[in-house]
Amino acid sequence: MAPIPRSTSDFVFTTRYGTPIEPRNFNREFDAWSAKAGVRKIRLHDTRHTCGSLLAALDVHPRIAMQILRHSKIAVTMEIYTHVPSESTRKALRKLGKHLGNQGDHT
User: Fold this and answer.
1) Residue 67: which of 80, 52, 53 has the closest Cα?
2) Residue 24 burial by CB count (10 A; 0-12/13-18/19+): exposed, middle or buried?
3) Distance between CA 27 and CA 89 in Å, rounded?
4) Model pTM greater than 0.70?
5) pLDDT score for 35
6) Residue-wise pLDDT tens for the chain (107 aa)?
7) Residue 68 pLDDT
8) pLDDT the model gives residue 7
9) Which pLDDT belongs to residue 2?
10) 3-state SS of the chain?
11) What is the rounded distance in angstroms from the CA atom of residue 38 to the CA atom of residue 22?
C-alpha cells in the first residue's frame, strides 16, 4: 500500500493499482505496522482519539486540531475526540513521576 498523488485519486491509501483498500486488509496492515513499531494493538479508529488528545495536551489551538482531524464542527473535536487531563490529574502524575525517580517537571 502506498499513497498515490492527490491528482490521481481522492484516497489517502490505495492498493498498488490505485484502487480502494478493503477495510479488513487495511486493518491487518495497521496491526502489522503496530507490531513492527512495538506499540500495543489498538483499533485504527482509536488513533483519531489519541491524536486529538495529544494535540489538546500539547496546547494546539482547537481550530487547528479540528482541521487536522478533518471535522466540520469544533464541538465534535472538543467533545468527542479530545480527552484533556485536569490540572489535578497532571499534578498527581508529576508527583508520581518524581516518586518514581523522574526529577524533571513534565506537564
Assistant:
1) 52
2) exposed
3) 33
4) no
5) 93
6) 555 444 467 777 888 888 899 989 999 999 999 999 998 889 988 888 888 888 887 888 889 999 999 899 988 888 887 666 677 777 777 787 787 776 555 55
7) 92
8) 47
9) 56
10) CECCCCCCCCCCCECCCCCECCHHHHHHHHHHHHHHHCCCCCCCCHHHHHHHHHHHHCCCCHHHHHHHHCCCCHHHHHHHCCCCCCHHHHHHHHHHHHHCCCCCCCC
11) 25
d(CA 49, CA 73): 16
Residues pairing with 2 in the sheet: 14
Return the C-alpha cell found at 36. Answer: 513492527
Residue 2: count other Cβ atoms within 10 Å of its Cβ.
8
20 vs 42: CA distance, rounded Å: 22
Report residue 8 CA to chain centroid gap: 26
Residue (of 25, 51, 50, 52) closest to 13 by Cα position: 25
Q: How many residues does the chain have?
A: 107
